Amino acid sequence: MVPASSSSGFDFVVAANRLPVDRHVHPDGSVEWRTSPGGLVTAMESVMQDREAAWVGWAGFAGEAPEPFDDGALRLCPVPLSTEEVADYYEGFSNDTLWPIYHDVIVPPTFHRSWWHAYRRVNERFAEAVAEVAAEGATVWVHDYQLQLVPALLRDRRPDLRIGWFNHIPFPPVELFSQLPWRAAILRGLLGADFLGFQRADDARNFMRACRSVLRATAKGDVVTWAGADDAQLGAAPRRVRAAAVPISIDAQGLRELAGSPEVQDRVTEIRASLGNPKVVLLGVDRLDYTKGIRHRLRAIGELLEDGEIAPPDVVFVQIATPSRERVEAYRLLREEIEGTVGRINGDFSHLGDTAVHYLHQSFGREEIAAFFQVADVMLVTPLRDGMNLVAKEYVTARHDGGGALVLSEFTGAAMELRQAYMCNPHDIAGLKETILRAIRDNPAAKRRRMSALRRRVHNHDVQTWAGEFLSALAAAPDRPAKSSSRLQES
Ligand code: GDG
């Protein structure tokens, strides 16, 4: 990457709800920004080389935003959110309206017009911030469901830009999407992009169907053509927008190196010993979210204990449930329910010194998670719906010793790629129980063959490949925007 300094703007701009850094305030009041661990930053690094790049996003706390600052070669541009906007745009519309609709309505979505107004206002602010820092003809990569209006709002301000959007979560079937009172506005927002990337081909197809049915647009192959007749934002000229699957992945090399480091290896031994050196460790690692199927998983584990198929101290289940969205009611209820279930299971099946279910409602460092993956003989990834699920990809990569087994829900994006996993339908508790037992009891050679194929797949399609594929698709998108002088006129 080259130093971010250009006064004429940046060639490459990322817009995401969050900046890739977290603020830490020390006891003496001094502030430190730490890069948040995660694949997105690594992916962006690989595509930002030799470009002047900026990242527009919320800094993670309400109130006034800090001035733009540099993190290495990257310019970070914080977008402010008020306390009310955090509640209405982020916790409300993003996480309590869109999130449930986009995840099969596992819990009922909440509709509030005031939340929608906040969502639109914040999207405008993001579009404004990107428009200010992007150089003439720059490439802009907008991320995720929190910013679906940004593509059109940005094109309106800056028709010279090449705009791509990637959806990290599923795109729902039109029958569910149509519940949204603001469905047309959201589609119009997205159609301001040149290229729309989705996790699965089914998500892209769902989007195309929604455009056809809600906007009466023409959708052929993977291109939507729409004149935007009733939309001032897009103008009258028909636009052609491509929508296709570009499945996300992980920083496989980084994780392999971390997993193999002596410190992590030491932790693997320590963790196994703390669990009483069981014969079989079953593991779940999820944000505590109703999409992740933790309740169904616990139900299956509880019944397997009851049937006497598994029992501590030989077989133990560890569930890491990272705290998430705790101010949203559905998440509070989920936590209560899960913790009640864990308590009941342990009450019934644990003995002094032999715990059946180890439940950890905590966040751990990356090293610790990499160690847990290697402790797990069977990894349980059982979401009811998940855009991709990076945990599945991380698990098979962290098991560089070739051991382990992955139980994977067919309702994850990862299931489209990780075909050699032990596939399950988490709604089918009897089937889930059988699959878990098969993953425990299958012969080791068969398990190793599966794991080796899974590891190869992730190795060949890592997060760097993903970012490269997305940007190539964006560069080749059907309608090259005309260079315009609008920005120069503005300044
Ligand atoms: C969204 C989509 C899509 C978890 N606990 C800890 C921890 N983690 C890490 C995992 C993994 C990440 O968080 C979770 O990623 P997922 O993909 O599983 O799920 P979402 O957070 O729902 O992400 C999803 C993803 O976006 C990317 O496009 O795959 O479908 O819902 O990396 O390892 N990391 C650390 N401590 C923890 O306690 N350090």
From TrEMBL:
<dbReference type="Pfam" id="PF00982">
    <property type="entry name" value="Glyco_transf_20"/>
</dbReference>
<comment type="similarity">
    <text>Belongs to the glycosyltransferase 20 family.</text>
</comment>
<protein>
    <submittedName>
        <fullName>Trehalose-6-phosphate synthase</fullName>
    </submittedName>
</protein>
<dbReference type="GO" id="GO:0005829">
    <property type="term" value="C:cytosol"/>
</dbReference>
<dbReference type="GO" id="GO:0004805">
    <property type="term" value="F:trehalose-phosphatase activity"/>
</dbReference>
<dbReference type="GO" id="GO:0003825">
    <property type="term" value="F:alpha,alpha-trehalose-phosphate synthase (UDP-forming) activity"/>
</dbReference>
<dbReference type="GO" id="GO:0005992">
    <property type="term" value="P:trehalose biosynthetic process"/>
</dbReference>
<dbReference type="InterPro" id="IPR001830">
    <property type="entry name" value="Glyco_trans_20"/>
</dbReference>
